[in-house]
Every structure is written in C-alpha cells, then in structure tokens.
Specification:
alpha+beta; two-stranded antiparallel ribbon; 6 strands; globular; disordered N terminus
C-alpha cells in the first residue's frame, strides 16, 4: 500500500469511528436493544434488556416454550385486541430480549380488517411435530417444531380459511436472557389452506 492509499484508509477509518460520513451528516446509528446502566466509577456501561416473562412459568422445557410461544402468536382476537400485533406482544413473553425488541410484521397483517369486520378471533390448536432431521439439543441451544391449525371464527358463524402451518423454533438459554429457554428465532412454514 502506498502512502496516499494508507492516508485515505486512515481517514476513512477515523471518520467511521467518529460517526462521520462523506455526506457531511453523521452516519445513522442502528437501533439498540440495550440500555445504559450507571455503575460506580464507570460511565456508559451497557447491559442487555431482560426479556418479558409470564408469571409462574419456569421456562424449563424448550418444547413447552415453543408451544406457548406459538399459541400466543396465533391468539388474535378482534373483540379485545387493539390491533394485529397484540398477539405478538403476548408471544414476546416467551422470546429472547433481542427478539422481543424487534418490531413485528404483524402490525401490517392484511387479514386484520376482514377479521375486525366480523368481530373474529383465531381458534388455534398447537401440537408437537416430530422432525426426524432435528439436531440434538446442547446445553444452550435447542430446536423444536410444532404444528398449528388456525381458523378465524366469529360468534355469528362466519368462518375464514383454516391455515395449517409448521412453526420451527430456535431456542437458547443462558446469557442475558437468564437460565430458562427462550425462543431466539422462528420460521413459519405454510402446510396448506382449507
């Protein structure tokens, strides 16, 4: 590297470390899932935000955590919920602090308007699904899959499409989320509509 290239590289590094960008404006700061904590003789010590918890639930069985997470995720009820993301807020009781801090896509659920028109709720049945290719658990990670059958219904007899899905939960324990199992990630695979 010649002297000019080294000088440019050093300038770029200095600008990125100080938060400056070539456009004359500070570089955007990504959202954080941490909060500042004051400590003696320490300025700006940062600690992770603990995840929400459901009172009385021990978080000891990864399969039960995945099942409860999925049941809450599919618990929409237009008669009591303010919007489609209220179910995700209930499901957040079973996720890691990082996942709980994410903005759910459920806020943009296009089915909500139709469900609200009929004052519908989602009737969901969740059961374990045995995946023969599932990796073995470790001390800090596990995977579980559940099958969910969900149908929006109303008290006056309206019935929406029944959705059959598999929910794959990636679970972790330890670290900032505590000793219990938490859903650290999930994927929903459509199994069909009827």
């Amino acid at each position: 590297m010649n002297a000019r290239t080294q000088a440019v590289a050093a300038l770029v590094l200095m600008l990125s470390v100080t938060g400056c960008s070539g456009g004359g404006r500070p570089a955007p700061t990504p959202p954080s899932t941490t909060r500042a904590v004051s400590a003696p003789n320490s300025a700006g010590v940062v600690a992770p935000v603990p995840p929400p918890s459901q009172a009385g639930f021990a978080y000891e069985d990864p399969g039960e955590v995945c099942t409860r997470f999925t049941a809450a995720l599919y618990s929409a009820d237009t008669r009591r919920d303010a919007g489609p993301d209220d179910a995700y807020k209930r499901a957040a009781n079973f996720v890691s602090g990082t996942l709980a801090a994410q903005s759910p896509a459920a806020k943009r659920d296009g089915r909500w308007a139709t469900w609200a028109e009929y004052r519908a709720y989602v009737d969901a049945a969740v059961e374990p699904f045995v995946d023969a290719l599932q990796a073995a658990d470790t001390a800090i990670s596990a995977r579980r899959t559940v099958r969910v059958t969900a149908t929006p219904l109303s008290e006056d007899g309206w019935r929406g499409w029944t959705e059959d899905s598999l929910v794959d939960c990636t679970l972790r324990r330890g670290g900032p989320d505590g000793s219990g199992w938490r859903v650290a990630g999930y994927e929903i695979r459509q199994a069909g509509l009827r």
